[in-house]
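Hi U.,

Before I forget, here's the chain from the pilot set. I'm dumping it here mostly so it's searchable later in email.
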Amino acid sequence: MSRYSGRKPLTQEIYTRHVSEMRNLLHALELRDLFEDNETRPKMDMYETGQDVVIEFDLPGCVLGDISLKITGLTLVLEAWKPRETNEGKFICVERRHGHFHHAVQIPVNIDFGSLRAEYRRGVLRVVCPKSGERVVPIKEIEID
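Structure:
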């Protein structure tokens, strides 16, 4: 009598998972190539709590209306615009960035895409991604509080 349980062998599962991860990484790289060379990436931190993955972007001086956040597949795409400040005098040194900002981040775990939250306070955009057990791949725009 056969001992086949109907499950794929472990090596096939591992191979399928690795191929899926490579496709997701290639998709994230394609999104990064869409942005222009003069656009910059804001500083970002990503950390994991018991129930959430939290992503924080530094966007000081940006206006809420000039920030766009989208989910494409398993990639979080941030686009923002900060105008250059005008002063009466001449600049001696300019280190603060202005213009277009973008960042494409692959979310590393299974996320409940219907429950994503984002808030912008004191120059930091904080995106809270609750974890879930199932994998869903939607395309959605996220409102920022």
